[in-house]
Amino acid sequence: MNHIQTRSTGDGALLRRYEYDDGWTVAADLGVDDETVTVDTVGGTAIVVVEGPDGPVESEFELPGTAADATVNNGILTVEGGR
After folding, report:
1. pTM for this one?
2. Which residue, of 11, 52, 56, 72, is most buried by count of CB atoms within 10 Å of its CB?
3. Residue 76 and residue 33: Cα distance in Å, rounded?
4. What residue ranges define each of the domains in the chain, with the CATH number in brackets?
5. Alpha-carbon span 23 to 68, nearest angstrom
């Protein structure tokens, strides 16, 4: 397994990428309630929208490939894909 920390800027989410022989996982600690998060993946891009008190905030980040699954559990976004 290879671990790559790809981004941690200011107050933004800590984004980590893990690469395995048969796939990859990208995880981000969003620090928000699951109900406020919407995730969509398009090709090699994840689009994350968080509903906040001042309206929605959208973020995008590149994935190492096409996503097979994206979930949010206890404020942790997990996107997984295969090779």
Report:
1. 0.83
2. 72
3. 9
4. 2-82 (2.60.40.790)
5. 10
How many Cβ atoms are within 10 Å of 78's Cβ, its own excluded? 14
- Please, which residues have CB within 8 angstroms of residue 24's CB and are 6 or more apart in sequence? 17, 18, 63, 64, 65, 80, 81, 82, 83
Number of Cβ within a 10 Å radius of residue 79:
23
Q: Tokens 């984004």 label which residue?
A: 15
- Whether 6 and 16 have beta carbons less than 8 Å apart is answered as yes
Q: How is the beta sheet containing 69-73 ordered, strand by strand?
A: 2-7, 14-20, 23-29, 76-82, 69-73
- CA distances to 53, 54, 55 from 15, rounded to whole Å, are 23, 24, 23
Please tell me the predicted confidence (pLDDT) of residue 44. Answer: 94
